[in-house]
Amino acid sequence: MSENVTPYKNSNLGKKEQVATMFNTISKNYDRLNRMISFGIDVKWRNKVVHIIDKTNPKEILDIATGTGDLAINFAKNTSAKYITGLDISEGMLSVGKTKIQKENLSDKISMILGDSENLPFDDNSFDAISVAFGVRNFENLEKGLAEILRVLKTTGTLVILETSVPTNSPYKQFYNFHSSRVLPLLGKLFSKDASAYSYLSESASKFPYGKTFNNILRKTGFKEVENKPQTFGVATIYTATK
Q1: Cα(179)–Cα(185) distance, integer angstroms
Q2: In Å, what is the CA distance from 218 to each residue of 3, 19, 96, 124?
């Protein structure tokens, strides 16, 4: 069970509503800040996710917590998929994503849908592959969200999750702690209207279960062939699983 970290400590709203509000607020600066915070390495991680899913020859892909659509656009350009659906809880992020998709002339291949990852608006066994990049730690109920993913994934389908994790070896662990606790919130304060958003992103990353712990949560949910692949000294991890 993951710790239920929320963006706004004194809010009466539930985590879903807080997360939606947070991403709506930072949506216009999100892509630029994301590249800055990760030193651009997140692009390499996403490319690996695309490569893993492309090897399964999917026809339809669901990208949950699609945000501004980076991964959905990458799927459209670099896989054999005929159709990609991006789903997110933030209207602001989706709006930015739709503009990017239109500029890439991919509107006929990608649809962007406002929706809740814990109550997916799709039939059982709908998708050949499902991805979630930096989104599962924002679920209000992690197990419920994963169970929904399992439900809409086809029997032969593949799930790939890219999520933050914590390095365990020195000096990477010390650098990670400094970057996440000091640098990330400072950048958020300097470049965003919502400084608490980047404090939340840092805190939620540090407290989210990762590695074998998250593998066990996936298995408990019902996924099979679960594997975790640490990236860049362990600051992120790619998880793969099947139904």
Answers
A1: 9
A2: 16, 23, 31, 18
Query: pLDDT means per 10 residues in the chain (243 residues)?
Result: 74 90 88 78 95 98 97 98 98 98 98 97 98 96 97 97 88 74 70 70 86 97 98 94 97
CA neighbor of 130 nearest in space, from 152, 113, 98: 152
Query: Residue 34's closest CA among 5, 68, 64, 78?
Result: 68
pTM of the model as a whole = 0.92
Q: Angle CA(206)–CA(209)–CA(215) in degrees, nearest 5?
A: 145
Which class for 123: exposed (0-12), middle (13-18), buried (19 or more C-beta within 10 A)?
exposed
Q: What are phi and psi of 135, to 5 degrees?
A: -130, -30
Distances in whole angstroms, Cα of residue 64 to Cα of each of 116, 129, 139, 212, 231: 9, 11, 11, 22, 21
